[in-house]
What we know:
Elements lengths: L1 H10 L6 E7 L5 H4 L2 E6 L2 E3 L5 E4 L5 E4 L3 E3 L9 E12 L4 E3 L22 E10 L2 E3 L6 E3 L5 E4 L2 E3 L22 E10 L4 E12 L2 E3 L4 E6 L4 E8 L2 E3 L3 E8 L5 E9 L2 E5 L2 E9 L10 E8 L4 E5 L4 E6 L5 E2 L2 E2 L3 E4 L11 E2 L4
Parallel strand pairs: 1-2, 2-5, 3-6, 4-7, 5-7, 6-8, 7-9, 8-10, 9-11, 9-12, 10-13, 11-14, 12-14, 14-15, 15-17, 15-18, 16-19, 17-20, 18-21, 19-22, 20-23, 21-24, 22-25, 23-26, 24-27, 25-29, 28-30
Amino acid sequence: MFLKLTPLFSFLALASATDCVGVIRSLADVATNQNCSTVNIYGFTVPPGQPFNVSLAQGATVNLKGDIHFGNLSWAGPMFIICASLLRFLRGNGHVFNGGGPFYWDGLGSNNGTIKPRPMMRIMISGRFSNVKVLNSPAQTVSVRNPGPLTISGVHIDNSQGDKPNGKSNGLPAGHNTDGFDCSTRDLVIQDDCIAIGNGSNITFAKNQCRGGHGISIGSISANVSVSNIMISNNVIIDNDQALRIKTKFNATNSTVTNITYYGNTASSCRSFGVLIDQSYPSILGTPGSWVLLSDINFAGKANVIHVNNDSDRIAVNCGSGSCLGTWNWSSLKITGGVPGPVTFDGISGYAQ
């Protein structure tokens, strides 16, 4: 993972900030103001199809002073890119980045249909990023690629308007694939909203509320990646397809997922599964692949308490041949409701359906 981030370190080896206050009220202001030690971003509408791309100087502080709206156009994105080494603080002050999701939502997410800007936001900073609201992302919301330690806190992502069908979604929830955070990173603490971890290590996801989506996910895991040392703790998961999920692509090779700990999470009204570990993605409980190795997947310490709907599987574990390794301690997993699901791995201890 460190080797993959080396080019990013080079890219972010920016000069120290100039002692000035930069003011950004439009894209035209970015180039002449982004090198200041303090950068104030006021509310404006970003023209359709153009990225709001800010490369900040080392040690800068950024204050969001108004709401940012993005014009509607079917294009690849991202809509917002922020790069900085050792950013002291990005203070959102409760202001909103509005992606205009209803224009794009067709129930197909990033899989097909309308081309949607994704991710909506690409965060490539170290330091602190806090108190920002993100509304109606077209597809995946935030991608994090941090060059050093980063704490994200007080970020509220609201795509709830996409939970219901619209005129383009054929009865499906309109805002499909509007995941909160997609991380491929290291040394990251996220303290709000939901996550999909595709690559990285030393990630803590704590004290968040995840409502009306896919739950908290590791994956989908592709080839040649490593996910390790992940702590998922004290989150509240409501009305999701599943509470907790690990999914690996059936054809992925040379990847590992290890040392994943779930601590003190609670979930209610899970529609399909309580816990799902599946190596057959994009299928669900299909023929699994065997070349992504899973180990040390544990429910430890404070109890993880999950309630699933009556026709949902409590747990389902679909491992490839020899790809789930060791003994997994699930003694701190408590699930009520639902029915027993299929389990193809005999290394789970401390839990029985």
